[in-house]
Amino acid sequence: MTPLADTPATRRRVRARWRDTDTVFRYAVRAAAALVVVVLVATAVFLVAQAWPALRHYGILSFLSSDRWAPSEATTTARHPNPYGIVQFVYGTAVTSLIAMVLAVPVAVAVSLYLTEVAPGWLRKPLSGLVDLLAAIPSVVYGFWGIFALIPAVRPAGVWLSRTLGSAPGIGPVFAGPFFGVSYLVAGLVLAIMILPIITAICREVFATVPTADKESALALGATRWEMLRMAVLPRSRSGITGAAVLGLGRAVGETIAVTMVIGNSVLSITKSILGPGATMSSVIANEFTESTEPFHLQSLMVVGAWLLVIALIVNTVGKLIVRRTGEDIA
Amino acid sequence: MTARMPASPVRRGLSHRLAVNAVMTVVLALATAGVVALLVWILAYVAGQGLKYLGPVFLTQTPPGEPSQAGGGFANGIVGSVIIVGIATGLSVPAGIAAAIHLVEYRGRLARVCSFLTDVLIGLPSIVTGAFVYALWVAHFGFSGLAGAVALALIMLPLIIRATEEVLRLVPNELREASLALGVSRARTVMSIVLPTARSGIITGAMLAVARAMGETAPLLLTALGNDLFLEANPTRRMSTLSLQIFNNAITGFATAQARAWAGTLTLIIIVLVLSVGARLLSRRGIARSAR
Amino acid sequence: MPTPAPPSDTAAPARLDVVNLTASYHGRPAVADVDLAIEPRQVTALIGPSGSGKSTLLRCLNGLHLTVPGASVTGSVLLDDADIYAKDSNPVEIRQRVGMVFQRPTPFPTMSVRDNVLAGLHLGRRLGRGPHDDLAEQALTKAGLWPEVKDRLKAPGGSLSGGQQQRLCIARALAVDPEILLMDEPCSHLDPISTLTIEDLIREIKETYTVVIVTHNMQQAARVADTTAFLTMPAVGEPGRLVEVGPTERIFSTPRQQTTEDYISGKIG
Questions:
Q1: Do C90 and A15 touch (CB under 8 A)?
Q2: Which of A39, A187, C92, C131 is nearest to B183 (CA)?
Q3: For residue C231, which of B118, C48, C86, C113 is within the disulfide window of CB 3.0 to 4.6 Å?
Q4: DSSP three-state, residue A303
Q5: Percentage of chain A with pLDDT > 90?
Q6: Is the pTM for the entire model greater than 0.90?
Q7: What is the ipTM of this complex?
Q8: Domains in chain C, start-ordered, CATH in brackets?
Q9: Residue C5 and residue A4: Cβ atoms within 8 Å?
């Protein structure tokens, strides 16, 4: 081709090319954004599709009406009773997440208060970096460390709990022994460590948005630093802390490998004692997936996965909405 | 009357309040010290166990056929991790940056929906993503490294979108307008002005996502499955990764396998920490440069 | 000329005619019902209080207004009799013909001085890669910056002083060889000496370009503009309107409208 001459034809062609690259680019990035929506929808659709044979065979609600998971009793024909009850997994997920929240939220709030308001200036950045590093440690490492370092360390406390509280009236069954190590309690402990940096990071952001004027006016009233934190920082941050806790919960609900390694994988029924072994929704999938040879076994694991998806979506959406609303309140 | 009250109760109140303040300051400091101590404990324990076996043999050999045997290493897992995470990075980084460009540069309703769903996707349990890729891919084509890479890419995608979105928003709008006013198209403005300006932030985000993918285990159980027998470099077959080998060897109950798993854990921790700390340093340098 | 040919000095400056223009953000007009003729080889100044819509009007002249989310325009802007808001007009091409310089100097931070000057040409795909030092020198000379930067063409654009950065941006705009140059308060972030340098530069480049400048410095308008247009809004929150336009001397000596006189004598704004 000759160099571009100034004729109407070339002008139009050049014009069209500019417009084309721009349009192509716009549609390309638009498609990438749409991918996010597609992935989420497809996840739900494909999980339910895989689970569908089991759902149709046993009935959708029958999974939630039993706490007995006994794949070896499954046959290709029998419909009742459903050998794939999943209530104990929902229970395990709830109990381990609850233990994690009870342990992690107060510590995370204390740590973020210290990091944003109390620690000497030169310590804040490095300490925050160290706490953030906890989030970088992979799940499988937490699980392995949990088995070999954490369980021996908490064993005396667990045994003591089962001896003193295990026979107490009322709460006794919750702390009934024997305590072997692998248990809801240890799973909850590991989860607490894993969600701590997430809750801390969000709390730090929330505390940082409290206006200096509020803090200074509290101090000007003669408040001590702790009173200032209680009067000015914590009340303004209540919903932010809640949102952070819910997002931490969302992480705890879905955490898999670490929990699988320390919870004991007892699937036959609900273990009431937090000192006993159990299973969570995610742990049963990870533990049995590659050996799911019984009729409807894999499909039933997919049912668990679909319910886990539902729970995780609800928890995360709620948490995100709370945090987002807080952000708007502050702004 | 109250104003005439003797000062002593006030002073006693004050000393009480100061005592509470001191106690709470100590409590907050102890909580932080405890968390840092926990980190040190974990790292020290992994280092102590891992150093017993980590060495050239571990890094260059595959595991012995029988887990109870001593010796061998995780060379196949290390290679598998690099291949799988590499493919996942190649898939997720361009897509994630493109999606973030849509969120920041074009906006609109899809952008708002996508921004919210990105947050939801970040909170999606990784085992669910693994189950999705199983249903989408493995159920039809079998276990493979490629399926594992797709699963990891889906986990990395929202992380990269979020990180890129944040740095793109920091690029001053004046730069975009200055470029547009020169008669540069929007696409070229984004590619040649906006992205280079945000480069170090985007690289930081990508490195953190890679670190996260390196340690993921659960979704790989459902997709790449693992292969402890030999070094497999073909991603269309089932592959092992460092994380999968740690998991499989850790739960065998053989001290020999666990020794390998600890060495693998230390290797993994080193990789992940180098990526995380490196990303942090890079982002600090980027901030320093743009502030100048 | 609207061609992707390399820049030349032969381009004739164009005229602009604003016809019944209303520009809005999210449906709320910022400036309304403007009719204004902008003559070639002249400097036209837009003056008026903050919020009178003079910057918005300026940004309508090269279509940059529409790149803001929620922005819309009615009416037309005729660039040599062709409406830039017509369906078949190409916004990218319009912006090449109508250059713009902003309040804050905006050198591209990742580029050297030379790459900054050539950015519009490279990114607009009008030049292949290559040093093109001659083009850079040409543009920098026009902007009066060449003697100061000729030894540091490879230094980052951000390493220059504020006044130099702004002249770099002017050089960058001129390198694309526009017919019209829009300047949005180009001196508001500069010291007095840099300001005078840029005003000299404006007087020079109007020989070859049509210049429109927004300023809220009335002395500056008096110093550089041939024609001055005064905009104001009846009340805060209402759209700005064009009150009066005429030769600068007349506007400043014998304004016909009371509001113009009030503004010029410092009673409002």
A1: yes
A2: C92
A3: C48
A4: helix
A5: 47
A6: no
A7: 0.90
A8: 16-107+173-264 (3.40.50.300)
A9: yes
